[in-house]
């Protein structure tokens, strides 16, 4: 079964996956949207498992002490690269 560019776009809209990933998934499943979604989920889980093993060696540590000094919190937020750690949005967390 063939599929159109609209089918690829619809799959991208539903999954948020990249265009080529969607096209490959549709090709492998014969154009079946539901099977393609399942295939993309399986591949996404495999990618996530690979990334879960990597260590986040960069990051930031923040501390807060509430007025009166009875309550305090220390938080560590990790990331994989120093580029992210130096980003203003990351530091604003």
Output the strand order for the largest sheet: 1-2
Q: What is the succession of H and E elements?
A: HHHEEHH
Proportion of residues in β-strands: 15-25%
Number of strands: 2
Mean pLDDT rating: 89
CATH topology annotation of the largest domain: Helicase, Ruva Protein, domain 3
Number of helices: 5
**Class per helix and strand makeup:** alpha+beta
CATH homology group of the largest domain:
Ubiquitin-associated (UBA) domain
- Mind telling me which CATH architecture of the largest domain this is? Orthogonal Bundle
N-C termini distance: 48 Å
Describe this structure in words.
The protein has helices at residues 5-15, 19-28, 33-52, 82-85, 88-91, and strands at residues 58-65, 72-79. With 93 residues, the protein is an alpha+beta fold. It has two domains: 5-52, Ubiquitin-associated (UBA) domain (Helicase, Ruva Protein, domain 3), CATH 1.10.8.10; 58-91, no CATH class. It has a two-stranded antiparallel ribbon with strand order 1-2. The longest helix has 20 residues, at 33-52. The chain is elongated, with a radius of gyration of 21 Å. The mean pLDDT is 89.
């Amino acid at each position: 079964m063939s599929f159109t560019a609209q089918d690829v776009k619809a799959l991208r809209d539903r999954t948020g996956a990249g265009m080529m990933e969607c096209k490959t998934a549709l090709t492998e499943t014969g154009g079946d949207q539901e099977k393609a979604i399942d295939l993309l989920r399986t591949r996404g889980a495999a990618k996530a498992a690979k990334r879960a093993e990597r260590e986040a060696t960069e990051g930031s540590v923040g501390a807060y002490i509430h007025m009166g000094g009875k309550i305090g919190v220390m938080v560590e937020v990790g990331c994989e690269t120093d580029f992210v750690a130096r980003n203003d949005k990351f530091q604003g967390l």
